[in-house]
Amino acid sequence: MTPSTILILIIFYFGILFYISHVVSKKDDSNEAFFKANKNSKWYLVAFGMIGTALSGVTFISVPGEVGAPSGEQFKYFQFVLGNALGFIIITKLLLPLYYRMNLTSIYGYIEKRMGLYSYRTASSIFLISRTVSSAFRLYLVVIVLQRFVFDYYKIPFSLTVLLSLVLIFSYTYRGGLKTIIITDTLQTFFLVSSVFLTIYFICDSLNLSLVEAFYEVKKSNYSKVFFFDDFMTSKFHFVKQILGGMLVTIAMVGLDQDLMQKNLSCKNIGEAQKNMFTFTGIFVIINIFFLSVGALLYIYADKNGIAIPLDSITNKPRTDLLFPEIALNHLSLIPAIIFLLGLIAATFATTDSALTALTTSFCVDFLGMDKTENRSKKNTIRTRNFVHISFSALVFLVILIFNSINDSSVVGMIFKVASYTYGPLLGLYAFGLFLKSKKVNDKLVPFICLMSPMATYLINENSKILFFGYVFDNELILINGIITFIGLYLISKTSVEKISL
């Protein structure tokens, strides 16, 4: 597939998104539409669109790539996915009712009413930092693919490729915000899901396998081991660690994260929001099975055709993230290449556009108070909102450039490793607020607790083999971070005269 063909496809794709944005936003570009889609979203559209937001380009490329990684990961990621599903259920039954009962625009409004202004701003700041970093990682993964297969051909520098991507995203989201995102993400998820199924079909066709034969081929391969129960102390892949880590990371990165919760809060009522989450959970688990299957088939195809894992252009080391695009764009026919590219773009931009909208919402509501009744319809607040939106786009741009200069590891692992440090304090804050309702914290000291907790967690992780008899942490490290935050909050709290009912 030539770079010119790919570029034309990208232009066509964004043309569709711009058209949708124009139709949706010309009717209403108010803050209420931008922040909450006027609380009129259809639950089934939200559920389907959330698939694209939750999966992202990380799942699309890195998860299949890691199936055959030298570390022997195989299908171990599915253990993490099962933990994700448990986390989604907890969110649906515990957190969503709370958010709807309080009629929140920003979910961190709960922390303000429960603990105070300093705690509220701290929680929001944690989200702003965490989501900015994770969104930059996700976009980075796709930009390096576009750079390698398109823009290097035109001698366009990496920084300009990143900038163009963010300008395009900003252009179709800045007016309609969440109201636009609900529609565009539905379309992008359709491309993503279709791409997965069609990719499996075309790889099977290239291998002269029927779908049934492909299933047995994957099953008997060296890539299909799902459950790992050996070496609990030293292995990061152990079933218990993956389940626990998946559940806690999901609660923190979804239930305590403005991005995906903002979409849930755009439904008419709690009943529809819960139907959305249960539906989303089922689809999420199933689609990840197919992503892992794609990974196994890619390595089977590579082994059969003598295709090596591509080398990173910076480190010159094998990079599993690039195997899928290498095969799809350079070894399969034109139609599979187009399907792959549509799925990749859809997965990434569905995540990034949603994240930028959530970051803008959180800052405008939590720090500028734009959800207040007297501010909702003022034209000057819309100008301010647009400036905030541009600012976060610029910040993501800078983070991607920094990450590109230092990264030499798998993006999947990097994202969840960072999440263990940044989202841990949110887990501790909400756990304290929900389970110790008779306690009131010293609000001004909360920022220090939330700053010291990740530092203490880092030290524990670096010395875990010494402190815990050889134990090695994986994603469950977020639990340690949350516990440290919880204990710190307890130490600066006192018993309240009245039990807090939130």
Key words describing this protein structure:
502 residues; mainly alpha; two-stranded antiparallel sheet; 20 helices; globular
Give the helices and strands, then pairings:
Layout: H1 3-25, H2 31-36, H3 43-66, H4 77-101, H5 109-114, H6 117-151, H7 158-173, H8 178-206, H9 211-220, H10 239-255, H11 258-264, H12 270-305, H13 323-330, H14 334-366, H15 379-406, H16 411-422, H17 424-435, E1 439-441, H18 446-462, H19 464-467, H20 477-491, E2 493-495
Antiparallel strand pairs: 1-2
Helix pairs in contact: 1-7, 1-8, 1-14, 3-6, 3-8, 3-12, 3-14, 4-10, 4-12, 6-7, 6-14, 6-15, 6-16, 7-15, 8-12, 8-14, 11-14, 13-14, 14-15, 16-20, 17-20, 18-20
Task: Please explain how this structure is put together.
It contains 20 helices and two strands. It has helices spanning 3-25, 31-36, 43-66, 77-101, 109-114, 117-151, 158-173, 178-206, 211-220, 239-255, 258-264, 270-305, 323-330, 334-366, 379-406, 411-422, 424-435, 446-462, 464-467, 477-491, and strands spanning 439-441, 493-495. A two-stranded antiparallel ribbon has the order 1-2. It starts with a helix and ends in a 7-residue tail after the last strand.
